[in-house]
Amino acid sequence: MITTISKRLFQAVFVVWAVGTLSFIMMRLLPGNMAFKIAAGRYGYDQVNQQAADMVTSELALDRSAISMYFDWLGSLAQLDFGNSLVSGRPVLHEIQHQLGHSFELALVATIISVLIAVPIGTYCGRRANSLADHTSLFVSAILRAQPVFVIGLILILVFSIHFKLLPVAGFGGSEFIILPATALALSMAALSSRMIKNITNNAVTSSYYQFARLKGLSENQAFERHAKPNITLLFLPFLGVQAICLIEGIVMIESLFSWPGIGHALAHAIFSRDIPMIQASAMVMGLLFVAINSFIDLAVYLIDPRINHSASNHDR
Amino acid sequence: MTPLIEARKLTIQDQHGRKLVDNLSFSLASNSALTILGESGAGKSILAQALLGILPSGICQTGEIKLFGKPLTKISQSQLEAIWAREICFLPQEPSKSLNPIMPMRRQISEVFEFVHLQKYRKATQSADESLTQLNLDGHGAKVPSRLSGGMSQRVAYAAATAAGGKVLIADEPTKGLDRRHAAATIKRLAKYRDHGGLITITHNLQLAEELGGTIIIMRDGQIIEQGDASAVLTEPKNSYTQQLISAAKKKWNRPEKLQQPKPIITLENVSLSRGSKQLFHDFNLTISEGEIIGMVGESGKGKSSLADLSLKLLKPKSGSINYHFDYFPAERPKVLKLSQDPATTFPAHHPLQILLTDLQKKHRFDQDHVEVIMNELGLSAKLLGSKPHQLSGGELQRFSLLFILLLRPRYIVADEPTSRLDMITAEVVNKALLSYLEKHRAALLYISHDRRLVNEISHRVIDLDQTN
Q1: B276 at A interface, C-beta within 8 A
Q2: CATH node for A96-304
Q3: In this predicted model, what pLDDT tens digit does every residue of A177-231 receive, in sequence order?
Q4: Which of chain B's residues have a Cβ under 8 Å away from the Cβ of A316?
Q5: pTM score, two decimals?
Q6: Which domains occur in chain B, in start order?
Q7: Tally of helices (H runs) and strands (E runs) in chain A
Q8: Euclidean distance between CA atoms B451 and B257, whole angstroms
């Protein structure tokens, strides 16, 4: 276990460096004058002129070479200093703190909804493979998977906010604001995970140990409860970790669409105004989030899988 | 008295119309045994499924099965479920696959007491522990199947299968892969069912059939070859296949002559190895010479396979060295090879054997004549080359494994229980081909088996791991 944790820590450090560096390089490759974009972010597009751009350049020393800027960043990162926003001038860490909380809330609610959708549908279809229900679920999930998540979001807005006027279109506030963005994310995740659960359920109920459970006297429900559910859970948990990447990707789009003040929203804004420290920090936080979710799932699997020998470090074959 | 289980003109066909069981009739009376004996293959296991009413979809069945005098077709699903375990117990083939991989052994037994006998959780756990104690499995209750040997899993499966208390037992290959001692204990347990209820055993083990007595049915390719009283069939077999089967079981082996002044080809010097906290070998020395046949016996878990893997350099020792005294370039043509117990795990399931053979031929360039000669010797027909591995029986596939090995002309072969899953006739063919190759090519063999009599007969010397540690 200790080796796993140290491996994850090393991964986290690597992710921080790699994501930060990549976003730095990519921002450099974007066309357009950086000083103008930053000035526009600060004072609005109407106020931007050569003078404002020059001011930004001299203040932030943008005329330095890219290499020296990169090593400056790397040096302060080593001291855990993520720098200040180029636009607001405030420390990046301070800005991100709030946004991270909001994103986390959205991600959690979305994951819970997706599990609530996918598990019942997946297990139902897995126990009745090739039935009408199974084919319908495959059809619907294929259609949903084919849509980018913001299309799902847009359709939800059109139906529930504009047509039925049941829920707010976008924004942040009471609990009613989270319903649409979380559901959009959840639908896109459940489209995939319901099929995954269907397959592992089907494998479990057609396995020889399941059949043996029936033949040794357990009823269908008892056998499912004891010889399918734990086995399905153990396989589904790591899949949630894999899906975390979908979730993080979806969050960037969904937060922008619904103006949800989270880290994805902040990332999009930072990109428009070339706020490199903000971009790097939010991308790094998302990378760390991915590592953290997977470490958490590893830990959960470690705790619930009886095949893992907790006392000895060396497993028998 | 009505028979417990009866089959009349039972025929079972698969999707392609192949007859897995053809026109089988039998009846099992109270307190008696029925043994179905035959080649390793699909037909016999499907029969057990038919008797329990759990044939997979796509398999069709004609004729009649009666359970306790009532036709199976007139038994509803819920009535059938009430018969399972409570009236008829089923001991599946390959218990390691029939046990839930993530549930501790104790729970897999105690749940039967809990849900069938409606005992409280604690009482059920106690009952399960009692069954484990009776089967000499004290202290293993908390383990999951992957941490137990085949023999242990088999006993747990037996405890779980019979916990509900059914009087009749259907056992599918109950001794497959077990060593002699465990097989004998299993036979004793089965005999109890014969005496107090009823027993149907499906097996390829002639000795098992002999000891259980009762009625015997000999099957081949789904056809009934011979049927009758066990002692009569086994002492005076009428059919030539039955005669072959019996002579194979009783066969005495002549080991090839030892070579004069053989050169050593593999030496293990001061080798130590441990698994987990358990030390398997300490300063172990072994020299293997050309033409030598070394037998290896010992209980499960003593490190037979580990020692074999060490000699193949598949495992690295903790200390000590392993040396080959011939040019050894594994990438060119392997000179050391292993024939494993379960051929199904060594072939890719979805490629026809012809393709696998052609690939091997392209890489290692052997004569086509050779292929035919060896296939002939192994009794393999060229028609089988078009099939995919999973379509062949265990016996056919094991002979293909051996074919692929012999074509590469290895200097040293490890045979890890090569015949424990085979019927006796196929086992004889495999052993014969192996021995004649060794004699012809001065190759060495490490033969691992549970069968001490066989090992003593064929080997020049025997490593007994029960005595070394």
Answers
A1: yes
A2: 1.10.3720.10
A3: 999 999 999 999 999 999 999 999 999 999 999 999 999 999 999 999 999 999 9
A4: 147, 275-276
A5: 0.80
A6: 5-249 (3.40.50.300), 264-468 (3.40.50.300)
A7: 13, 0
A8: 21
